[in-house]
TrEMBL record:
Organism: Thermosphaera aggregans (strain DSM 11486 / M11TL)
Membrane topology term: Multi-pass membrane protein
Species lineage: Archaea, Thermoproteota, Thermoprotei, Desulfurococcales, Desulfurococcaceae
Protein name (Swiss-Prot/TrEMBL): UPF0056 membrane protein
Pfam families assigned: MarC
Entry keyword rRNA-binding: no
GO CC annotations, alphabetized: plasma membrane
Compartments reported by the entry: Cell membrane
Assigned keywords, A-Z: Cell membrane, Membrane, Transmembrane, Transmembrane helix
C-alpha cells in the first residue's frame, strides 16, 4: 500500500507542477476579467472537461503515438526535458504561456490547452506511460492525472478569491516555486536520457 502511495504522490506532484495552476491564474484572471463569477465557473467547467479528455487520450494511446512516430524512450526523455526546461524558464521569466488568445471560446483554447494541458503536460504523460506500459503503471498515471487535473481546475475555480486573499505577488511566487520544481525534473530527464543513449551505443 505504501508503494502505491509513493508512486501516486510522485506522478501527481510531477503533473501538478507542470500544469502549474498558480502560474496560470494571472492569465486566467486577465482573460475572464469582464465576466461574472457565474460565467467564470462555466468557463472553468468546460475547460476542465476538455483538459480531462486531452489528458486521458494521451494517457491511454501515448504508447501508440510514440510507435507511430518511431520515437525512442531516451529520445523522448531528452526532447521532453528540453521542452520542460524551456517552459520552466519562461515561467521564471514571467513570459506568457500562450502567445495568442482566441477571442471566441476561450474555455478550450487557450485555457484548457495550452495554458493547462500544454506540451509539457503531454510530454510528461507520454514519458510516464511509455517508460512502463504495464496496465498497472498506466492506471496509476491515469488516476494521478485525473486528480492533478481536478486539483488544477479547482484552484482556477476559486482563483479570484485566492488573488484577493493571497495577493498577486504571492500567487506569482508560488508559480515560480513550481517552475523551479519543473526545471529540476527537466534536468533529471535530460541527464537520464543522455545516460540511456550512452549505454545503448557505448556499453553494448
Amino acid at each position: 500500500m505504501s508503494d502505491l502511495l509513493i508512486i501516486f504522490i510522485s506522478y501527481f506532484t510531477q503533473l501538478l507542477a507542470i500544469m502549474n495552476p498558480f502560474s496560470a491564474i494571472p492569465t486566467f484572471i486577465s482573460l475572464t476579467e469582464s465576466m461574472s463569477h457565474k460565467e467564470r465557473v462555466g468557463i472553468v467547467r468546460k475547460a476542465y472537461l476538455a483538459g480531462l479528455i486531452i489528458l486521458i487520450a494521451f494517457t491511454l494511446v501515448g504508447k501508440y503515438i510514440l510507435e507511430a512516430f518511431d520515437v525512442s524512450i531516451p529520445g523522448l526523455r531528452v526532447g521532453g526535458g528540453i521542452i520542460l526546461l524551456t517552459i520552466a524558464l519562461d515561467m521564471l521569466g514571467e513570459m506568457p504561456r500562450t502567445k495568442q488568445v482566441n477571442p471566441g471560446d476561450i474555455a478550450v483554447v487557450p485555457i484548457a490547452t495550452p495554458l493547462i494541458i500544454g506540451p509539457g503536460t503531454i510530454t510528461t504523460v507520454l514519458l510516464l506511460t511509455s517508460s512502463d506500459p504495464s496496465p498497472f503503471n498506466i492506471g496509476m498515471v491515469f488516476i494521478s492525472g485525473i486528480v492533478a487535473c481536478t486539483a488544477t481546475f479547482a484552484i482556477l475555480m476559486v482563483s479570484d478569491k485566492l488573488v484577493a486573499y493571497l495577493k498577486v505577488s504571492t500567487v506569482r511566487a508560488i508559480g515560480r516555486f513550481m517552475a523551479i520544481i519543473i526545471a529540476g525534473v527537466a534536468v533529471e530527464m535530460i541527464a537520464y536520457g543522455v545516460y540511456q543513449y550512452y549505454r545503448q551505443f557505448f556499453m553494448q
